Structure formats: structure tokens, C-alpha cells
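Explain this fold:

***
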Amino acid sequence: MVSVSVNQNQTPMDKPFDAMEVYHYPEHLRPFLEGLPAAPGVYVFHSDSDVMPLYIGKSINIRSRVMSHFRTVSEARMLHQSRRISYHLTAGEIGALLLEAQMIKQLQPLHNKRLRRSR
């Protein structure tokens, strides 16, 4: 028999972090997912304030790309800050690329790293 001693003075910083313990599916965004099209365009995660979006992304299939954010535990913080999801349809992939770059430079979303600074 193996005996494991547990130190009662262990702080939260000493315990290993398990992201799955703190991840909860953001049910409040489910109504927005149902209306997303399987078409090219740009999607935007909005917070309570419409002043600055949280994240702007592009895809040739908006629905599948937005759904992929929900499968990533590392994006849980952004999903819980989000209050709604909007989208803008484009004629194709190049239109989505151009519109995304323009929107990121203008609106400077919190979670977009690239393209945020104008050079």
C-alpha cells in the first residue's frame, strides 16, 4: 500500500492548474451560434460595451470557425467576456481578409495581437 501525504499548508499556486476544471461552456452565446452562416466573412465577439470588440476574425465558413473557438479551453476567458457575436458576409476569402484587416486597425480589439498597430 502506498501512502501519500498531503500538505495542508499548500497554497493555490503550488497546485497544478487544470483548465478543464474551470472551463464551462458559455451557454449565453448559444442563440448567436444558431444564426451563423456557412459562408465567407468576418465575425466579431462583442463585450457588454459596443465601443471596443473583444476579437475580430475571418473565415471562409463563419459558422465552423466560430464553433472552433468553443472547443478551445484556452479561449474560455474571451468567451465568458463575450455577450454577443455578429458577422459581416463578404463575396469571398479575399474580401474577408481585407475587411478583417481594416476592422482590426480601426476598432483595435482586445484579443487580436497581429494587425492591431498601424505601421
